[in-house]
Amino acid sequence: MACARCKDLCVRYTITHPRELRKAIQIGAENIADGTLGEVVPDSPWVSVPFAELAKGAAWDDYIEYHFRCLHCNEMFWLHAETYHGSGGYWEPKDFKSIRENIAN
Ligand SMILES: [Zn+2]
Is 2 domain-assigned? Predict the structure, then answer.
């Protein structure tokens, strides 16, 4: 159900290294800046650092979980990773049927 604005974000991007997490954060921030995505903040967030601060370079928590929504078609995305032990995580659409491609570096 992804639209033209968010279809490039409909990938499962594997994060195994801090630089990949940084890249995923940057992509999220760029898509918020250009009006493609909006952040969805849960009622009880897992994280202490707001995404906007993270995007500006703030240090991340040991576990991160941020949620996003396409402002044009409501496709939901999330960025989640375990950073403390470095086991990593993903940027991905919440609906696995929307995953167009798996990207792992
Ligand atoms: Zn969309």
Answer: no
| Tally of domains in the chain | 1
DSSP state of 97: G
Contacts of residue 21, defined as CB under 8 A and 6 or more positions apart, other chains included, come to 15, 60, 64, 81, 83, 89
Residue 14 domain boundaries: 7-103
Distances (CA, A) of 10 to 35, 38, 59, 60, 101: 16, 15, 26, 24, 7
For ligand 1, the distance from its centroid to the CA atom of residue 4, given in whole angstroms, is 6
Quick check: 91 pLDDT over 80? yes
**Ligand 1 centroid to 13 CA: how many Å?**
17
Collect residues with CB below 5 Å from ion ligand 1. 3, 5-6, 70, 72-73, 75
Residue pLDDT, tens place only, 35-80: 999 999 988 887 889 999 999 999 999 999 999 999 999 999 999 9
Return d(Cα 90, Cα 69) in angstroms, integer: 16
